[in-house]
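ZP: hey, is the adenosine-5'-diphosphate complex queued? I don't see it on the tracker
AM: it wasn't, my bad. submitting now with these inputs:
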Amino acid sequence: DKYVYDFSEGNKDLKDLLGGKGANLAEMTNLGLPVPPGFTITTEACKAYLATGREPDGLAGQIEAHLESLERGMGRRLGDPQDPLLVSVRSGAKFSMPGMMETVLNVGLNDRSVVGLSKQAGGNDRFAWDSYRRLIQMFGKTVCEVPGEEFEHALEDAKRAKGTKNDLDLDADDLRGLVDAYKKIFAKHTGREFPQEPREQLDLAIRAVFESWNAERAILYRRQERIPADLGTAVNVVAMVFGNLGPDSGTGVAFTRDPGSGAQGIYGDYLANAQGEDVVAGIRNTVPLQELEQLDKKSYDELLGIMARLEEHYKDLCDIEFTIERGKLWMLQTRVGKRTAAAAFVIAGQLVDEGLIDLDEALHRVNGAQLAQLMFPRFQLDHDFQPVAKGIGASPGAASGKVVFTSARAVELAAEGESVILVRRETNPDDLNGMIAAKGILTSRGGKTSHAAVVARGMGKTCVSGADELEVDVPGKKFTVGGQTVGEGDVVSIDGTTGKVYLGEVPVMPSEVVQYFEGSLDPEHIDNALVRAVHRIMTHADGKRRLAVRTNADTGADAARARRFGAEGIGLCRTEHMFLGDRRELVERLILARTDDEREASLAALLPLQREDFIEIFREMDGLPVTVRLIDPPLHEFLPPLEQLAVNVAVAQERGEDVAKEEALLAAVRRMHEENPMLGLRGVRLGLVIPGLFAMQVRAIAEAAVAVAGSGGSACPEIMVPLVGAVQELETVRAEAEKIIAEVVGDSGVEVLIGTMIEVPRAALTAGQIAEAAQFFSFGTNDLTQMGWGFSRDDVEGAFFWRYLELGIFGISPFESIDRDGVGRLVRIAAEEGRAARPGLKLGVCGEHGGDPDSVHFFHEVGLDYVSCSPFRVPVARLEAGRAVV
Ligand code: ADP
Ligand code: MG
Ligand code: MG
């Protein structure tokens, strides 16, 4: 088996085998860009190592051969005492996992080659000893699990002894002393001397990278990001280039466009006289990349040229890592860069303008989750809120919450239902748990490319980084800013777009994208790149999609808003709430009615109220279909809770009051008590048991439709019977309903359809029969999931879903995203058999899944006519329905 690839042998499409970093290093090499030579050990080798606990046969020999050819090419031997070749050993999985795994620089240095390195660098002892102490530090920490703080403390001690705070003030002697201190730390923790043999260093480092795949934080990150656990990581061995050779050297990171807003320009951080990790770790303050133009114009121009070339080649935003060694530019990494939701839309639009991609591809490049993020509210700052600090808007959103300083505390408070803001000097991979639990992240150090920024953007979590006015005191559980002290539990608000930090809770307002959907921002006439891009891509999605998008709405106001958001009808109008509030009294009378007359009287009182409700909704949806579901929940939901009622009755009796009415109510509640109400007397069952209830609703709907038609409007009601499991249920309801409709509608021209919800598994399995009696189906996927799995939706999420997710029984809650294999199969069967029995049968879906991106794609595949979702998800469903086509 071939386990090792030279950079010249790979390309960007081999990410499975070479990992993202290796594949892109190969791609850049083949583009002729200045990449230091090296080779990649495949993910297959890693998987074999993890499975058996040892390197697969043949790997050692292949590494040997590639190392020799690297040495030949460089004219130097690994760790040679006179003129050493040094390498970095870098992890790189298929999906980028920023800072999750390990990298070791300067491999090949030892007590002898450190002298040779100094000679190579023209007698630069300082540089050589700095490189050596970095090797011991990184190797100790990542390969041998020496606690990193020990090295940090020794470094602090050395600086203190020198009376400085800056690493750069340490001279060669100081650093040589530090190497001795580091070696002692190493020996103390590992029980052995720091390995002097270069090849042993290399082999141990490679093995450590393999093993880092299963580090706890890597596992947690993969779970959060839904990255499969069995991919393994590749290992890249790369000839070292040095950014720490002096002021004419340095290292940096850059994006080809702003990953926050998508704006074109030069975005990056540069740090002179530094090595790799220094930039990302936020240890020293970086300068904006533009300043490189003054420092080293030649490298700067070359870098801009390369960035343009990469964008053209990848046809997308790229991020890069580079190093300048004495005026010579080297590319160390590139990849298609992560970006915020706003940047994703803006960049997709720009790339279309630049002719690099077409609109179909632009639609591919964005998704519903991003659009949903852009619909988050913003801070409303017209009051007297003054920021107390301004950092970098690293990941957008508006978050308020209680301040916490540790990951553990964040997790604790979040579990109690609190919103928390995790405040740190800088985050590191150990903070991942806290970052997941927090509503927002605030750091006092680090730029747009710091750990906090990159991880938060990936999670879609609000983050302000590098707010350097903040003095963060983690052990003291407080920070100070502008003379004020903020402690754990105090509330702050952070704006991840502007980078501003406020004390207290700032009120929020709708985002620009929501204002656009609401119709109050005209994309043709405002200068807002985001709104224009959203408009353009949404228009394209609408032109492409086959699925119609309706909304779930129970009131005229919801219906109106959903229409502005692009809803093409109502897919689910629940009538339950129409029985609450003032009308509860009427419902109580209906339930308690002892005679037909009493019952009819309360139904007659409800009729005009219901009719008004429907008139309002039909008017708002003028001409668009409105699916009205007949009353569904068990009747006792409309009555007071049993215990409370029993207490009231007892108390009143004690006082000698007249309790006849309350007692009757209590008796009714007792009579109607059910052990499993969700499987009890509800839906069509209720309609068949309480005479006149469905009839009243049907009449109200038909009368409302006729009234709207009579006043110049147009109404298209679709009456939906819930919880049907057998065609006979539907037939019974339908026979009665048709009589009423015929009588009310007369020759008004109004048409009323009658169909059913498919939400009981038996209905799905007998859909062919049911279709004979139904003019449409609407899949009630909430109940279908609940009954298909036998899960009580109200009980399971907190009780054991966490365990199921942990065990991977499902990757996501089946209430959130449709379970394609099981519940989805019921949908598929019902759609096929329903359409076979009644060609052209109208099929839709209502329920949470209608607004879930992945589920929308499934419903498209199955051939439904529409999805219906809550008003705020309507744009998301429109976008995803378009994406399902291209
Ligand atoms: P990560 O995946 O965390 O970004 P990398 O493997 O990219 O880790 O390496 C960490 C840092 O070390 C980066 O800043 C990178 O540019 C730098 N680095 C890696 N290899 C070399 C090398 N051969 N020469 C100089 N710097 C390097
Ligand atoms: Mg790293
Ligand atoms: Mg990197």
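AM: back. The radius of gyration is 33 Å.
ZP: great, adding it to the tracker
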